Amino acid sequence: MKKGIAILGSTGSIGTQALEVIENYPDKFDLQVITANRNADLLITQAIKHQPNTVVIVDESKFEQVRTALWEHDIHVYAGEEALAQVVEGNEIHTVLTALVGYAGLKPTLRAIEAKKTIALANKETLVVAGELVTKMARENGVNIYPVDSEHSAIFQCLVGDFENKIEKIYLTASGGPFRGYTKDQLAAVTKAQALKHPNWEMGAKITIDSASLMNKGLEVIEAKWLFNLRPDQIDTIVHPQSIVHSLVQFEDGSMKAQMGLPDMKLPIQYALTYPERYKTDFPRFNFMDYPQLTFEKADADTFKNLGLAYKAMEMEGTAACTLNAANEVSVQAFLEEKISFLAIADINEAVLNEAPNILKPVYEDYVKTDNVAREKAWELVKKFNK
Length: 387
Ligand SMILES: NC(=O)C1=CN([C@@H]2O[C@H](COP(=O)(O)OP(=O)(O)OC[C@H]3O[C@@H](n4cnc5c(N)ncnc54)[C@H](OP(=O)(O)O)[C@@H]3O)[C@@H](O)[C@H]2O)C=CC1
Ligand SMILES: CC(=O)[C@@H](O)[C@H](O)COP(=O)(O)O
Ligand SMILES: [Mn+2]
Hints:
magnesium, oxidoreductase
């Protein structure tokens, strides 16, 4: 039987690559739902080409455009945030790939878990914001969350065959981003264009800036805590500029396993959709002679404060990571709008994390409130830091 798939965020970097994966196996996957925030043109093109059952455009002002374009294609069209959350409940859907960016992923992911759908999770912010609630609900509903993020897919792949054995620690590899080796003085002058040039991966703007500021690795540390049920002291990071070793697990006996391959997100996307099977691909293969040296170095957490802030938020528990995530979404947006400097991103994140109240044992409404409060505070600081 074909597996019914919903892709939330089909117009993004992960979403478009997921469509390529699904297209390669027409006898295995049945595309049920695709969604976009505002990019109606691409959503329409994708719908006509891939023929899903349903599309959602979150921006309601684009509804008429999408509905008219898909009128004669027998595709259901909905608009708005609530539609995005509802659409994951469809009976024909087996797996929901959360490929949308930011806090907006939380609500539809929770709804998908309640509807007992398997989750292929790219949207790391969902676990950063509300990992405790999301993993609790997944356990209660018997739902599996399979990681798409390359590092977490690597850890998961290393654990296959070893689920019963104890992890001593994990190492998440980090490319170091475009500013690896920069001093604080050098960072003070970097531009948006430079920050958007990731050395190894082509990704959406938000995660690319997060990679440049090492916040991506910080978010991934928190994501790993929830995915693999680890203590903070079991999660380490190591800079590996080639992005070939995608991450490593060290077991209690001292043995280490690593997962390697060329940097190509189609592989972890596909594995999350096909686990426990591996389907044959024609993706380019790794050639040792192209990489005679794989190197490793310590992350510079003094210069790139965000990494330490993520560890701090993780140790604070409660809603602290939700606060940090909201501050970071605002500061990254402000940087992309060229309102603040690169260094102000971490300064704003730090100030908001230190000032916001931390609600322990949060329920869903506490995350909503925390996200709002932190965003408001962060926007105030953007005005202060305006360059
Ligand atoms: N790109 C990558 O290689 C990797 C990404 N990830 C994670 O995957 C997620 C997606 O990243 P990426 O594909 O790069 O992001 P993109 O910015 O490329 O795509 C984001 C997608 O989400 C949609 N979207 C944006 N905002 C909203 C919103 N408020 N409500 C609903 N939909 C929204 C966008 O729609 P529209 O096009 O209309 O704006 C688009 O479809 C992120 O959480 C990221 O951290 C993890 C590992 C690697
Ligand atoms: C492809 C992927 O998973 C990204 O999260 C990637 O890891 C970003 O690279 P950095 O290691 O530079 O954050
Ligand atoms: Mn990653």
